[in-house]
Write a structure and sequence with these properties.
This protein has eleven helices and twelve strands. By secondary structure, the chain is α/β, with parallel strands linked by helices. It has two domains: 5-120 and 306-318, 2-Layer Sandwich (Nucleotidyltransferase, domain 5); 130-302, Nucleotidyltransferase, domain 5, CATH 3.30.420.40. Bound molecules: zinc ion.
Amino acid sequence: MKAPVLAVDMGGTKILAAIISDKYQVLAREYQPTLASEGPQAVIRRLLAAFDRLLSSQKMGPSELGAISLAIAGGMDTEKGLVTSSPNLPGWHDVPLRDMVGEHYGVPTLLVNDSSAAALGEYRLGAGKGTRNMVMLTVGTGIGGGIIIEGKLYTGSSGSAGEIGHMAIDVSGPKCKCGNIGCLEMLASGTAMAREAIRRIRDGQQSILIALVGGNIENITAREVGTAARNGDALAADVILEAATYLGIGLVNMVNIFNPEVIVIGGSVAKLGDLLLEPARQVVKERAFRISANLVRIVPAQLGDDAGVLGAAVFARQRGTK
Ligand SMILES: [Zn+2]
């Protein structure tokens, strides 16, 4: 397939759409707010309008595309082309997005989970290049994941595999919106760090975080926790260490099950760098099977915001459309 791919990475807050060449160059890209609260119809209209603008910016017609590849933050049935549900996209229940887009343009269209797409992007073009077996975790407001086995994205029977953020870590931990208890996402995501920092401050602990948010502690996010930790704040450093330890326990499970060559950590919280990664690596060293633990490299992602759209394009090419 030589023709370019129109790829999209859609999350709860933003949409990135891009046209990507057969050499994985981003020929054009456009950001849009998702405005997810407006519901699926409005979001899909905005998506199609963004596609039209991108195509006309390249003076292309839809027939010149090899495929359209949709990376969406949600549960899906890839067989039927449905977005089945999504905690980040209210009102999306069994939306036949693949066929709606595919029939509108008359172009072969694929659906893939956004974190899985990011994993595939990092595997082919970023931090996982040159390996065969890779696990990726996207640590942001939630925790997503993707698993590459022998060079192929593992999607599971219906496209739902790779929900690494929803592996149970603490059987008596906080209840997760997925219905499970003590999920990794509830303990090691940016949201979890902010929640824990706020809890400790409400308990009366001192922190420069209070001044960093002008006294409105409910405005604390993982970014402020990182800033405070870098400035020597003990509470913030401890919150990150705790989250990193939980993350490490999650990684131990992945290392023992999959024996990957590399684990790539992306997402906004990964910007904490070694503050997060070093304690997690330590836990892996201490707890995982020795041979697997000695082999695995735990590294930051390289592709930034483009991982999802690049991975979506890789996914389309691997599936060999047109
Ligand atoms: Zn969960």
